[in-house]
Known about the structure:
alpha+beta
Amino acid sequence: MNYGPGRVILNKGIFQEFFDKIEGDSFDVTTAANVFHELVNKEKKLDVITSPRPFFRWLTTRCFPW
């Protein structure tokens, strides 16, 4: 998290929700993964891609779209 003067949290939105649910700077990885999935599943316009393909392929020194 990013803190301002007086330890005021500067991150807002989904970042603030995540931070509130994991209850601090130190957290269990399983808890964080569960919170992440919970927040993502609430967002109708947000998709998580777990196995993305590269958008560009590199040929020699030039970059070409698929």
